[in-house]
Amino acid sequence: MDAVALAKIQFWITIGYHFIFPPITIGLACFIVYFMTKYMRTKNTYYKDLSWFWVKLLATTVAIGIPTGIVMEFSFGTNWSEFARFVGGVFGSMLTLEVFFAFFLESIFLGVMLQGWRSSRISDRVLWFSSIMVAVGSVISAFWILCANSWMHTPRGFMVEGGRAILTDFWQAILTPSMFPRFFHTINACLMTGSFFIIGISAWYLLKNEHIQVAQDSIKVALIAGIFFSLSQVILGHWNSTMIAEYQPAKFAAQEAIFETESGVPLILFAILDETNIYFKIDTFFLPLLSILLGNPNATVIGLNDLSPDIPPVMLTFYSFHGMVILGGILILVSSFGVFLLWKKKLFGNNWVYQNWFLRMAVFCLPLPILANELGWVTTEVGRQPWIVQDVMRTVDGISTVVPAEQIFLSLMLFIVTYFILSIIWILIMRRIIRKGPVIQEVNK
Amino acid sequence: MSVHQGLDVLTLLQDIWFIVLLFIIIIYTILDGFDLGVGFWFFFSREKDKSITKTDRRILLQSIAPFWDGNEVWLIAAGGILFAAFPDVYATVFSAFYLPLILVVFCLILRATSIEFHEEFDSPIWHRITDTAFIIGSIIPSFSFGVVIGNLVQGLPIDENKHFTGNLLSLFNPYALLIGLLALTIIITHGAIYIRVRTTGKLQKKATNWAKIGIISFLICSTSSLVISILVNDHILDNFFSNPFLLLIPALGFVVILITLWFIWNEADPIKTFSASSLSISLSILGAGVAIYPNLVISSLDPDYSLTIYNASASDLGLLVMLIIALIALPLVLLYTLYVYRLFSGKIKANGSHSY
Q1: Is B98 within 8 Å of A110 when comparing Cβ atoms?
Q2: A139-156 as b/e, with b when 16 or more CB fall inside 10 Å?
Q3: Among B33, B350, B121, B60, which residue's Cα sits nearest to residue A60?
Q4: Are the Cβ atoms of B105 and A70 closer than 8 angstroms?
Q5: Count H helices, E strands: chain A?
Q6: What is the pLDDT of residue A58?
Q7: What residues of A are in contact with residue B317 (Cβ under 8 Å)?
Q8: d(CA A351, CA B11)
Q9: How many domains does chain B have?
Q10: DSSP 3-state assignment of B307?
Q11: Which residue of A168, A211, A318, B242 shows the fewest CB atoms closer than 10 Å?
Q12: According to the model, what pLDDT value does residue A352 have?
């Protein structure tokens, strides 16, 4: 296998793995702020103990999220040195901004939060403040990373001189056209991930009839948040797609499987296809839904055949995109069901047969947002191919030319083994914390 | 060396960024240096009585628990600044040191997870695994940083396209290995001194001995590497010859090292010793910075191919924007770093497990 393929696979695995964790962290961090604020308001230590339970799960997740993120920061230099050389002055500064404005904040206050809780020598006010800083830090972190990533999709504010991207306008470079839709879409996904994480664990407790109080209080908030974020994701996802249609027509055509340029295009709901043909499809027939979604029933969508040869792998883009959408739909249905039960006061207490159905579904849904995140990431990154910086630099030109394939193979094996072991440890520890459950001091309750 | 004459804005910005980079490396070495050092002494904290080992190790871990994560971010900051301000250096060095850096990253993963998950399972096997991971994860990076710096000072085969043309084995030459050892001794000395700050009783006594071992080995390594540097890589003297006033930095550094030694031997106030050790680290790195300026990576093929702060930097606007941001962010970061250190200062007591 050649060096380019190996470097790609390594990047796939390392970032795909890393991306499991930050959404959980960001989502949980926001919920922890909610519970801690409730504690500060009511002074009821029940909420502090409740928060601590979620903090433990957060800490275990961050402990893997941070070092696997460091891998990414190194990988631009180690594996993609020609890319780094080309974009350093623009892309590199955004990563550095992330370190300065977010990473420090998050890491340092996470230390305060964890040690403060364990050693009980830190005041409640400081704990509460740290929990806010961790949440704020993680969201700012996502902001800068997504700025950098958006620049790769819709590069602005630079010119190419002597084989380098030279910054010409800082604000244009960070606030590229795809920046805001991408940021809100992704943060919303993180909040969904956090919501369904809490829903899933709480539902498991309710099924087992353990830690009822904590489970009820958590699932209530998480369900309301869950339905809100699932529904708003429809709007934000739509916003993101219209942006893609405008700025990355090849990605758009691939994710919607449009091969021929047409106007008044129906939306394909399901299809069996390969890189060049559609064999079977279910679409909206006479209703030009795709064009309507773009704002005009006669809107033209440029097909892949007119965009070739610089088009992404169609199957991968199409199926990952549709997988993400289907998962989003499932999450909307499940959270609506949950909210309905909550509203009818049928969610708690053993008074209705469908209750268990819902709770089992809720547990099953816990990993779905994570899967949807991964699929969304595959859509956006694969959809940009063959470019590493859209229309400016090709992925094959970004690779480290001096690193021999054997060395990449070696590091790839190291990462696969390490990450596999890490996953097992993570799952074991999470399971242990969840099994043990929240410890509520009865005295103050 | 420099082809830039006069004081245009770009040159000024490049010089400033060289100083900022040195500053970040100094802070990193002082802060992460001590917790990496604790990792090294973790190995030697083993006692015949297993329960003492367990308690001591728990204290050692607790002494760095609130800080290590934030400290490590300074390394990421240094990497980020290289990426943004000197992209060519970042690209060339990181790809040249491919496997060694992958190994460092791997060690950082081991280290992070072993510290955070150490108390998760109360089984001897688990503790043996996490202890070992923590020790290895601390020693290999400390040593590797030195190997990288040694190679940068000595020179790498860099061609006219700023590409590394050597191979993996050539990176492990005797000079680089010596500098690797030097880095390790700095870190272990600093770590032992830090342990003295945070502990009492027998463990503190032990740390005093560790600090003695550390500083003696540091003196041996620094003297020999200085002599060898002057003999083998005499280009590092150029800046000192052209401006003898700068010799004050290494001279002062040497005096501070001797003061640190004197403090350790007299078991002086640990915080005073720690400050002296931090100052000696700062002066050593500053001296190294003066020695290589304005080079960042010296080419052993042709001095014209060397990557300097002038030919490897980002554009003036890029550097300016970053500088404004650094001027806003760095004081803030230092402020809350200081705050957190105050929050968790004082001696560690030997009570209680802190499993989740």
Answers
A1: no
A2: bbbbbbbbbbbbbbbbbb
A3: B121
A4: yes
A5: 17, 8
A6: 93
A7: 166-168, 170
A8: 76
A9: 1
A10: strand
A11: B242
A12: 67
Whether the CA torsion B170, B174, B175, B178 is positive or negative: it is: positive
Evaluate whether residue B1 is within a structural domain. no
Q: Do A93 and B72 touch (CB under 8 A)?
A: no
B349 inside domain = no
Q: Provide the β-strand partners of residue A394.
A: A387
CB A168 within 8 A of CB A158: yes
C-alpha distances out from residue B287 to A216, B25, B226, B280, B284, Å: 62, 13, 11, 10, 5
Give the tokens for residue A143.
């902001």
A188 three-class SS: helix
Per-residue DSSP letters for B262-286?
A: HHHHTT--HHHHHHHHHHHHHHHHH
The residue of chain B with its CA nearest to that of A407 is: B99
- Inter-chain residue contact A77 with B95, CB threshold 8 Å: yes
Q: Chain A: nearest CA to B20, how far in angstroms?
A: 13
Chain A (218-277) residues lying within 8 Å, Cβ to Cβ, of chain B: none
Q: How many CB pairs below 8 A link A and B?
A: 220
A124 touching chain B per CB within 8 A: no
Do the chains contact at A407 and B105, CB–CB below 8 Å? no
Please say if the pLDDT value at position B315 is more than 70.
yes
Q: Is residue A267 part of a domain?
A: no
The residue among B230, B208, B216 whose CA lies nearest residue B185 is B216
pLDDT value for B353: 43
Residues of A in contact with B77 (CB under 8 A): 96, 99-100, 103-104
Look-up: residue for tokens 């396209």? B161
Find, in chain B, the residue whose alpha carbon is nearest to that of A160: B315
Question: A313 preceded by cis ω (within 30°)?
Answer: no
Contact assessment for residue A26 and residue A138, using Cβ atoms and an 8 Å cutoff: yes
Q: Which of B86, B116, B343 faces A59 most closely, judged by CB atoms?
A: B116
B299 within a domain of the structure (yes/no): yes
Instruction: Find, in chain B, the residue whose alpha carbon is nearest to that of A86.
Output: B87
CB-based contact A63 B116, cutoff 8 Å: yes
The proportion of chain B whose per-residue pLDDT surpasses 90, expressed as a percent, equals: 28
Range of the domain at A214: 3-261+302-444
Q: Is residue A290 part of a domain?
A: no
- Which residues of chain B have a CB within 8 Å of the CB of A95? 80, 83-84
pLDDT at B76 > cutoff 60: yes
Using an 8 Å CB-CB cutoff, list chain B residues near A164: 87, 315
Q: Which residues of B touch A81 (CB under 8 A)?
A: 90-92, 94-95
The answer, yes or no, to whether ipTM is higher than 0.90 is: no
Whether the Cβ atoms of residue A304 and residue A253 lie closer than 8 Å to each other: yes
In a domain, B354, yes or no: no
**Structural domain boundaries, residue B283:** 9-343
- Chosen for mutation from B20, B95, B136, B168 (greatest number of chain A CBs closer than 10 Å) is B95
Say whether pLDDT at A445 is over 50.
no
In sequence order, which residues have a C-beta less than 8 Å from that of residue A208 and are 6 or more positions away?
none
Which two tokens mark A30? 């926001």
A174, amino acid identity? I
- Residues 6+ positions from A289 with CB-CB distance below 8 Å: A266, A267
pTM exceeds cut of 0.90: no
Integer CA distances (angstroms), A389 to A5, A44, A169, A383, A392, in order:
18, 52, 17, 12, 5
Give the number of domains in chain A. 1
User: A341 lies in a domain?
Assistant: yes
